[in-house]
């Protein structure tokens, strides 16, 4: 009994340390958000006040960035799912194993590449003289370079590419748990491949899709690097807003209040998606 207690303590120690670090960090932000900006950017000072939250909620810029972040994260997550589903299906059900291995290798290389490496790779590919524009120009499809950078298109492409490994790896397990005999029964009754996919495969896969969607949505919400490098200051997400408040304006209380508002909004959005996921699972079990 004592050995089991010791093993449990050893296993729980890393999680406990991580929890203490996270709670301390968020506790510091929540505490510092209740004060005014210190003199000469020296942190925070004065008496407790909710003025920072009033500034955050009253600012049209902050509200716009917050809603844009939530909306863009949903759109990019759905696009990622749309790409990841067929890739996961091919990985699990490919008749030629080398095809599945090749896709898994490409996803693994993408997953192991650093965010900065991927961001600068997309800068090279999507630039005015990048590979895409040069190829389209040489083929005579365009006369002028397309504007693929410093807008939501370039940022969206980079973030979807970043989210793709998380979605594929999660969906591979969900696809492997599908019962192929149900799909074969539908095909034997005369259903086409498309009808079988949408009427049989997708309903069975839907609970896994919702879990994956919640996961990548939470990752997309915290996007910072790609909007900063590929957005060129024209594309802003809430993480960039917080960064500017902290390291450009040196207004720690304002940045902390923005972080708290964003954190609450993100938790509410993820909670709603979790409720939707549970409801889908209940409907699927009936």
Structure description:
The protein has 286 residues and is mainly α. The protein has a single domain (64-285), classed as MetI-like fold (Orthogonal Bundle). It has helices spanning 2-32, 51-58, 60-93, 97-112, 115-126, 131-138, 152-176, 180-188, 193-221, 225-231, 238-247, 252-285; strands at 36-37, 44-45. A hairpin with a 6-residue loop joins strand 1 (36-37) and strand 2 (44-45). The chain starts with a helix and ends with a helix. The mean pLDDT is 85. This is ABC transporter permease. It is a multi-pass membrane protein.
Helix share bin: over 70%
Shape: globular
> What's the end-to-end separation, in Å?
42 Å
**Element order: H for helix, E for strand:** HEEHHHHHHHHHHH
Strand arrangement within the widest β-sheet reads: 1-2
Which structural class fits the helix and strand makeup?
Answer: mainly alpha
Q: How many extended strands? A: 2
CATH class group: Mainly Alpha
Main location: membrane
Family: Belongs to the binding-protein-dependent transport system permease family. CysTW subfamily.
GO biological process, one term: transmembrane transport
Subcellular location: Cell membrane
């Amino acid at each position: 009994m004592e050995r089991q207690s010791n093993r449990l303590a050893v296993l729980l120690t890393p999680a406990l340390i991580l929890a203490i670090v996270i709670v301390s960090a968020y506790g510091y932000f929540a505490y510092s958000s209740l004060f005014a900006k210190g003199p000469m950017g020296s942190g925070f000072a004065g008496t407790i006040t909710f003025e920072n939250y009033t500034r955050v909620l009253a600012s049209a810029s902050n509200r716009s960035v917050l809603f844009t972040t939530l909306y863009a994260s949903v759109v990019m997550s759905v696009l990622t799912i749309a790409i990841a589903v067929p890739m996961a299906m091919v990985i699990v059900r490919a008749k030629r194993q080398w095809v599945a291995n090749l896709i898994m290798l490409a996803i693994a290389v993408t997953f192991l590449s650093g965010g900065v490496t991927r961001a600068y790779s997309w800068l090279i590919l999507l630039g005015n003289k990048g590979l895409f524009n040069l190829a389209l120009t040489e083929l005579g499809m365009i006369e002028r370079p397309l504007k693929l950078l410093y807008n939501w298109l370039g940022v969206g492409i980079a973030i979807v590419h970043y989210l793709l490994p998380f979605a594929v790896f999660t969906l591979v397990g969900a696809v492997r748990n599908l019962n192929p005999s149900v799909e074969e029964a539908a095909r034997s009754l005369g259903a086409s491949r498309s009808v079988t996919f949408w009427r049989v495969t997708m309903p069975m896969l839907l609970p896994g899709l919702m879990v994956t969607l919640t996961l990548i949505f939470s990752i997309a919400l915290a996007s910072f690097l790609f909007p900063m490098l590929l957005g060129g200051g024209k594309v802003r997400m809430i993480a960039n807003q917080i960064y500017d408040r902290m390291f450009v304006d040196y207004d720690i209380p304002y940045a902390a209040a923005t972080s708290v508002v964003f954190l609450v909004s993100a938790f509410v959005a993820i909670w709603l998606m979790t409720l939707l996921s549970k409801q889908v699972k209940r409907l699927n079990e009936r």
